[in-house]
Design brief:
Blueprint: H1 3-12, H2 15-19, H3 21-30, E1 45-49, H4 54-65, E2 69-74, H5 77-91, E3 96-100, H6 106-119, E4 125-128, H7 146-167, E5 173-177, H8 201-223, E6 229-233, H9 241-246, H10 248-254, H11 261-273, E7 283-286, E8 289-290, H12 297-301, H13 305-319
Parallel strand pairs: 1-2, 1-4, 2-3, 4-5, 5-6, 6-7
Antiparallel strand pairs: 7-8
This protein binds NADP nicotinamide-adenine-dinucleotide phosphate (NAP).
NADP nicotinamide-adenine-dinucleotide phosphate (NAP) binds at residues 49-56, 74-76, 79, 102-104, 129-132, 150, 177, 179, 234-235, 237-238, 240-243, 264.
Length: 333
């Protein structure tokens, strides 16, 4: 451990320093981060979900500034158009388009994949950022609990449908925006969808975010050999419309300490642009460094190989798509 690692560990230990803007400021200085505007992403095609607000919008702005060709995804075509116009105006990059799709509606996810495949002969980065924490229990069109449908099943389906295009694009990446909230929750498959009676938005969200991180590792294990790099991350705590709406008291009390959307999105953009994430696969990141996926022994013990396999099987079955290798063979567990 060198001096920088020790300071980083000291910041990481208490969540309040690690997740707030303190963690961002200390680490960016500690590691002498390369400014994001220094990356040239011209010619790279990036699909980014949840780009109309918060972290996704901040990431889209930064990626457009770097010259990327962007496909922005959100549920509402008008909101998407407004985001596209704002990003083109601010960056001067006109290679920004949008597709309206609800990530919890699998027919819309299939239509989104079709559009991407028809419009782009390469796919450098697929970013699963769309997400929400809802106080009341909702369901997706297929009846799956909506947090799970839109943040676990829908993204899994989209990755599956775009897998071949990712595999034929050199150094491609699939990035997932999880949450530090998942540290409190162990992997559960039977309890992945909370019932109406037991539903608590923060707990439902944590369970879905844990499943995202486990699936990220499983994608890397199973499909990393195709040259696709899978990474998940969490942004710390950032001030966004989503946080203001879902956690108003937290947002008010923590306000001055919260990261800006740009600070929360920094590692996402960096994972899309830098060479370092190509040297490993299946990582979980915060502030441009890989992090442990567990802070509690109980959550680690919950993650048995059998339970991981059951998660993969359940998600494949729910979206009706078992990801296969290019030769059509399903991947062995
Ligand atoms: N901010 C934080 O501190 C924080 C912390 C941990 C994790 N995160 C994660 O970061 C991501 C972004 O959060 P945020 O804070 O930036 O929230 P936000 O301001 O509410 O933005 C959420 C974005 O996701 C889109 N979206 C939501 N549900 C969708 C669905 N079913 N299908 C397609 N798009 C959908 C929204 O677009 P439309 O409404 O236009 O469809 C919006 O663009 C989420 O995954 C969240 O869980 C955030």
């Amino acid at each position: 451990m060198n001096g920088r690692d020790i300071v980083d560990a000291l910041v990481e230990a208490p969540v309040v320093t690690s997740f707030t803007r303190i963690g961002y400021v200390v680490r960016s200085r500690l590691d002498g981060w390369r400014p994001l505007q220094g990356y040239d992403l011209s010619g790279r095609v990036i699909v980014l979900t949840g780009a109309t607000s918060g972290l996704g919008k901040a990431a889209a702005m930064q990626l457009a500034d770097c010259g990327a060709t962007l496909v922005l995804v959100g549920r509402d075509a008008d909101r998407n158009d407004q985001a596209v116009a704002a990003i083109i105006e601010s960056s001067g990059n006109s290679n920004v388009t949008q597709v309206a799709a609800d990530m919890g509606d699998y027919e819309q996810v299939k239509a989104l994949a079709k559009r991407v495949l028809a419009d782009h002969d390469r796919l450098d980065v697929l970013i699963h950022n769309a997400g929400a924490l809802t106080a009341d229990r909702r369901t997706a069109p297929d009846g799956t609990e909506a947090t799970v449908a839109s943040q676990v099943v829908g993204p899994f389906l989209l990755t599956s449908l775009l897998l071949d295009r990712l595999a034929t694009t050199p150094q491609s990446r699939v990035l997932t925006m999880s949450s530090g909230g998942m540290y409190s929750s162990g992997l559960t498959v039977s309890g992945l969808q909370m019932s109406e009676a037991e539903y608590r938005g923060t707990e439902q969200y944590a369970r879905a975010k844990r499943a995202q991180v486990v699936l990220n590792e499983m994608w890397a294990e199973r499909f990393g050999g195709l040259g696709i790099h899978f990474h998940a991350m969490h942004p710390g705590w950032a001030s966004t419309p989503g946080v203001d709406a879902s956690l108003p008291t937290f947002s008010k009390i923590m306000g001055p300490l919260l990261r800006s959307p740009e600070q929360g999105a920094d590692t996402l953009v960096w994972l899309a642009a830098d060479e370092l994430p190509l040297q490993l696969n299946g990582g979980f990141w915060l502030d441009r460094r890989p992090r442990s996926t567990h802070k509690l022994r109980g959550t680690k013990n919950a993650e048995t190989p059998d339970r991981r396999q059951r998660l993969w099987d359940w998600v494949s079955e729910t979206c009706g798509n078992e990801p296969t290798l290019p030769d059509g063979e399903p991947v062995a567990g």
